[in-house]
Amino acid sequence: xxxxxxxxxxxxxxxxxxxxxxxxxxxxxxxxxxxxxxxxxxxxxxxxxxxxxxxxxxxxxxxxxxxxxxxxxxxxxxxxxxxxxxxxxxxxxxxxxxxxxxxxxxxxxxxxxxxxxxxxxxxxxxxxxxxxxxxxxxxxxxxxxxxxxxxxxxxxxxxxxxxxxxxxxxxxxxxxxxxxxxxxxxxxxxxxxxxxxxxxxxxxxxxxxxxxxxxxxxxxxxxxxxxxxxxxxxxxxxxxxxxxxxxxxxxxxxxxxxxxxxxxxxxxxxxxxxxxxxxxxxxxxxxxxxxxxxxxxxxxxxxxxxxxxxxx
Length: 312
Hints:
- This protein has helices spanning about 5-10, 30-35, 60-65, 75-80, 130-145, 180-185, 210-220, 235-240, 240-260, 275-290, and strands at about 20-25, 45-50, 70-75, 85-95, 105, 120-125, 150-155, 170, 190, 205, 230-235.
- The protein is α/β, with parallel strands linked by helices.
- It folds into two domains: about 5-95 and about 225-300, 3-Layer(aba) Sandwich (D-Maltodextrin-Binding Protein, domain 2), CATH 3.40.190.10; about 100-220, D-Maltodextrin-Binding Protein, domain 2.
- Helix 5 links the parallel strand 6 (about 120-125) and strand 7.
- Helix 5 crosses helix 10.
């Protein structure tokens, strides 16, 4: 039986049965309640794939129908939606949550790299369509007046969505090269590094006072630079809305458990469309500016009638 037929068979399970849903969900504080079994359901069973780093399985989400519930990077979801993948977004932010301004770094041993001197620099990025990269390029272009086309971007992997091709102006690092090693060796002038940022004093932010800048940006825009949300198989959402609502409940309760254990501070993993609308709208605009999606997209078209009202 092929993947599509397996998916359909699962969706057609009688509504009185407990559904087993193939799921991709990373290991974070906000998902521990689900992964540990502390939060359960009488309606569904989330079969979480044994994947060490969730983003390595993102191609499996958008190139097949292997997962009915899947954590997914937002730019990857935008591209998948634009190219007709049967996925809809759930307004549930997944991950550790972080600001992004601090992720553009240089090697201080080789001298400073400043915002006004980025033209002609070689900047390493894991992938052209990486969501963290899209956020930072958006800040550079819209807030600091940087000409993105004047930078030599060096990538290490392609897009998760097969239909999207990187621009020919990008340089692909040689096979076996490692981004951080190239930065330390002087083969790159700067790099955008997300969750894999080494704890090394040589790495300094290009944006001065990046955390202060991130706070000012959020206060000015009302947005949060979110990376990952949950995607749902569109057929499942259309045929079994009660199942989708139950997935959302599990995720929300798991998040609440983590929030209860770590009270205080700003919520960087908000739930609900209203809480995420400004962030999604801004990232969609950045993605269009950077030619990551083939047309302008609205926040509304990311959702369907079931997922749009979750958390309302």
